[in-house]
């Protein structure tokens, strides 16, 4: 047990700790009983200085390649070397070994869909989650591209309805619910104030405008910050144009006075 | 410098020896600008004919913009002086020129070190897309060495009759009257006196500021500041077998690790590759971004030796004022670098030429004094021709360089043949070509799909973070 704990500690010494654990878990944890181990090691994740090399060699049954060893101490220092510009830096010695993204289901630069099958059909949800994990891993540990192992996965092979079901529908439900609640109360409120019933409200232009505003508000403003974001967006879209037109706006110092033009 | 005996400001001029010629183009330019309602012409008076001499124009800066401007001016019969501070300046630059530049500027083919016909766009999650399948046989992106190109253009200007001076422009005295000369203060290097040159002054009628991103001419006329990006580049000599991969291929890396608002690149040069990146908003982290770029290309540049490190500013948008009286800015000094791709060489040369053409036309081949309205014609023409291009690239940058999901979608979109064709058409020939509406619609749908998928994955990633 303690050996296995030490086994997991080298990944911990890298800067971004939790994220490192996840893919390692996915590849080396072939059975669920190791999950308890992971929770233990996570708790102890702050002792970064652990015995790196010796522990990893104990790892027998994992499908991980041997390249994942005692690299972590090296890679930050290697980057310092690289930062000294202007010198002749031979890049062969540094960064020889590095953690790369590995997963049993990631075969030849793409996800092997056969491994994602559930009851005879591909479980697209798990493909999406796996790809998200891969991207997260890469965001935290950027990797070199290689001509020998190109990444060929294309997200468009996942059918549109899988995306819809997973992302669009829950959000649509949420927004529709909000719109329905707002709409119901507004209809009641207006009715109690003016006595105009729902059907007659729909015929009124002002009420139709209110309805439009309510729908747009529910769609575009979901958090308080969205208001500022929208304002920033509008300003952003016109900024470049303004910068170009600045040459046509004449300050008073010049001899002519002009009317600034908008093309 | 001849002075004119002025009788009145409204038309007829009396010059000492010549017959008065009422300048005929003034009324037409007046009515044209009145119709435009955009600006009042400063010359409601006639521009006088110059007695006994041609118009004198100084071009400050001898890069592509300066070289092209000086050549056009000299060919137009104008007395041209080109001032360049470093004749063998090895500019840190991507060095990519579009195909149309070779034709438009009659560049000899041996200036081009390499012809890039393939590009690879690499997304944050290392999905690589090959671009260039739609290129025809004769189409390519030319990679040049800036010192070679700049020298060639300067030599051509000299052959056309321009005087090339090796000197550093210091400052400029603005004229008091509308027809007084500009007095330029500069230090002339003659190669023998070593580092310190001789201080000299020169009187000219008009100035074209082609002195780059840190333009002193721009400062002299109070042109205002602009936002700029820092581009950082390392030239790396890699082993020959790795170099064959980059024979005619350039790479673009996008991702938050490589740059928050630009891209990292590996461009092949004559016998080495240039690996670099750039940013506007996080200039302090540029070294970190450079490391990340090198890391992403690591496998392909392993064993390489860094032979040079360079950095330079790239303007992000034009300066608030691009001309003032008889001084006009062109090229990087004016801020004519596109967004999204950061392309500047072609636009520098073209703007230099356009400005020079406006001066030649306005002065009637150097016979007349020019004024601001003539230079404004150059601005009008420039904005009319290229503003759509700039706008489109700005939109692309705003939409697709925002965040990692947007970049993933961008790379996915680049895999589409229609996109590649449109992109190359507009890049190589500098025209925003209208595509077919059906394909445009398909493209719009695909774009929305890609962006949606990428954002959905990002939400999934955020869920994992929790």
Automatic annotation (TrEMBL), chain B:
Q: Does the keyword Metal-binding apply?
A: no
Per UniProt, the enzyme's principal EC class comes to: oxidoreductase
Please indicate if the UniProt record lists 4Fe-4S as a keyword.
no
At the top level, the lineage of the source is Eukaryota
Pathway, per Swiss-Prot/TrEMBL?
A: Cofactor biosynthesis; tocopherol biosynthesis; Porphyrin-containing compound metabolism; chlorophyll biosynthesis
Domain FAD-binding stretches: 56-88
The reaction(s) annotated as catalysed by this protein in its Swiss-Prot or TrEMBL entry are: phytyl diphosphate + 3 NADP(+) = geranylgeranyl diphosphate + 3 NADPH + 3 H(+)
Name the keywords, alphabetized.
Answer: Chlorophyll biosynthesis, NADP, Oxidoreductase, Photosynthesis
Task: List the Pfam families hit by this protein, alphabetically.
Answer: FAD_binding_3
Cite a single GO MF annotation.
geranylgeranyl reductase activity
Q: Please state the Enzyme Commission number of this protein.
A: 1.3.1.83
A biological process (GO) of this protein is: chlorophyll biosynthetic process
What function does this protein fulfil? Catalyzes the reduction of geranylgeranyl diphosphate to phytyl diphosphate, providing phytol for both tocopherol and chlorophyll synthesis.
The text of the family note is: Belongs to the geranylgeranyl reductase family. ChlP subfamily.
The protein's name in its UniProt record: Geranylgeranyl diphosphate reductase, chloroplastic
């Amino acid at each position: 047990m303690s050996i296995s704990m030490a086994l997991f500690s080298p990944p911990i010494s890298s800067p971004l700790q939790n994220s490192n654990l996840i893919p390692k878990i996915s590849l080396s944890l072939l059975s669920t009983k190791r999950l308890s181990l992971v929770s233990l090691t996570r708790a102890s994740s702050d002792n970064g200085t652990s015995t790196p090399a010796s522990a990893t060699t104990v790892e027998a049954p994992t499908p991980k390649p041997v390249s994942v060893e005692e690299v972590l101490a090296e890679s930050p220092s290697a980057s310092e070397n690289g930062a000294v510009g202007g010198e002749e830096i031979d890049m062969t010695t540094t960064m020889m070994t590095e953690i790369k993204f590995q997963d049993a289901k990631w075969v030849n630069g793409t996800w092997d869909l056969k491994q994602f099958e559930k009851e005879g059909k591909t479980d697209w949800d798990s493909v999406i989650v796996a790809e998200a994990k891969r991207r997260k891993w890469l965001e935290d540990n950027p990797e070199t591209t290689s001509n020998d192992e190109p990444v060929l996965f294309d997200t468009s092979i996942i059918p549109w309805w899988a995306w819809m079901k997973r992302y669009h529908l829950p959000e649509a439900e949420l927004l529709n619910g909000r719109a329905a609640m707002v709409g119901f109360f507004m209809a009641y409120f207006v009715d109690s104030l003016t006595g105009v019933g729902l059907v007659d409200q729909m015929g009124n232009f002002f009420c139709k405008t209110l309805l439009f505003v309510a729908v747009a508000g529910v769609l575009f403003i979901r958090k308080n910050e969205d208001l500022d974001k929208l304002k920033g967006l509008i300003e952003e879209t016109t900024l470049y144009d303004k910068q170009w037109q600045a040459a046509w706006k004449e300050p008073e110092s010049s001899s002519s006075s002009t009317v600034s033009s908008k093309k | 410098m001849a002075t004119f005996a002025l009788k009145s400001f409204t038309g007829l001029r009396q010059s000492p020896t010549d017959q008065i010629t009422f300048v005929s183009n003034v009324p037409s330019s007046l009515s044209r600008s009145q119709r435009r309602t955009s600006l009042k012409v400063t010359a409601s008076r006639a521009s006088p004919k110059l007695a006994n001499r041609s118009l004198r124009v100084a071009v400050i800066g001898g890069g592509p913009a300066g070289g092209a401007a000086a050549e056009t001016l000299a060919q137009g019969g104008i007395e041209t002086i080109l001032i360049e501070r470093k004749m063998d300046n090895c500019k840190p630059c991507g060095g990519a020129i579009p195909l149309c530049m070779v034709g438009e500027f009659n560049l000899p083919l041996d200036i081009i070190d390499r012809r890039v016909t393939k590009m690879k766009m690499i997304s944050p999650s290392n999905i690589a897309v090959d671009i260039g399948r739609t290129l025809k046989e004769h189409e390519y992106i030319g990679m040049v060495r800036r010192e070679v190109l700049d020298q060639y253009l300067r030599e051509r200007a000299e052959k056309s009759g321009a005087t090339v001076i090796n000197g550093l422009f210091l400052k400029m005295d603005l004229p008091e009257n509308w027809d007084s000369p500009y007095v330029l203060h500069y230090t002339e290097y003659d190669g023998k006196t070593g580092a310190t040159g001789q201080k000299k002054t020169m009187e000219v009628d008009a100035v074209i500021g082609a002195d780059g991103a840190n333009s002193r001419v721009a400062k002299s006329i109070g042109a205002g500041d602009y936002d700029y990006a820092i581009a950082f580049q390392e030239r790396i000599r890699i082993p020959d077998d790795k170099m064959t991969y980059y024979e005619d291929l350039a790479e673009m890396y996008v991702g938050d690790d490589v740059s928050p608002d630009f891209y990292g690149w590996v461009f092949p040069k004559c016998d080495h590759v240039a690996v670099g990146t750039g940013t506007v908003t996080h200039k302090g982290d540029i070294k970190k971004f450079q490391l990340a770029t090198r890391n992403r290309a690591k496998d392909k540049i392993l064993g390489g030796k860094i032979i040079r490190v360079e950095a330079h500013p790239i303007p992000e948008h034009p300066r608030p004022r691009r001309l003032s009286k008889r001084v006009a800015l062109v090229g990087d000094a004016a801020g004519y670098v596109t967004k999204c791709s950061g392309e500047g060489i072609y636009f520098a040369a073209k703007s230099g030429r356009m400005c020079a053409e406006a001066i030649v036309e306005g002065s009637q081949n150097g016979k007349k004094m020019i004024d601001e309205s003539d230079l404004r014609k150059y601005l009008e023409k420039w904005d009319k021709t290229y503003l759509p291009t700039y706008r489109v690239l700005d939109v692309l940058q705003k939409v697709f360089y925002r965040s990692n999901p947007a970049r993933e979608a961008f790379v996915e979109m680049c895999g589409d043949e229609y996109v590649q064709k449109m992109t190359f058409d507009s890049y190589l020939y500098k025209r925003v070509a209208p595509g077919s509406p059906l394909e445009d619609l398909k493209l719009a749908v695909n774009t929305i799909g890609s962006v949606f998928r990428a954002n959905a994955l990002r939400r999934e990633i955020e869920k994992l973070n929790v």
